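Researcher: Watch the backbone:
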Amino acid sequence: MKKLLKTLPFLALLLVVTSCSSVRVATDFDKNANFSTYKTFAFFKTGIDKAEISDLDKRRILRAIEAQLLAKGFTKSDNPDLLISLFTKSNQRVDVYNNSWGYGAWGWGGWGPWGGGFGPGWGWGWNQPNVSTRTEGVLYIDLIDANKKELVWQGMGTGYITQHMEKKEERIQEFVSKIMEKYPPGTQQ
């Protein structure tokens, strides 16, 4: 039991650290769309301009999407089959951890059967909880049929975002690649 109590805080920390690095992905698409006919793309400026993120992050995302589509054999075009748009959302998450509890905490003795007088002793104890905040971001990538002006595929990636500039490029690459792995529908391993 003591070993379990010592291991629990470590396991909780490991879970938090590993969950920070993952991107959860969901997709939706038009089942009537013939995805094999889409060969060219362009960015839908009107939709992209509405995304509420910095221009620097927009450029990072657009470069990552372009690289993914080029790797899939698409060609950038002035007369595209697909228009690419994006939008983002973010939520602040507050986590409260109280992992400093259990038998063996240092405290002050008291009168009664547990304490032999007023002075230091062992007993049940607890500390103030630790509070942390993280920003969870959602990136939506929309693929729009350029002729019909209809959404045919949407990928959504959800995960924790960083404000550290050095890691931002890497994190954006991870979001985009995880989302674009799911395009076209039916090609996932």
About this structure: The longest helix spans residues 2-20. The beta strands are 24-29, 40-43, 75-76, 82-97, 101-108, 120-126, 130-145, 150-160.
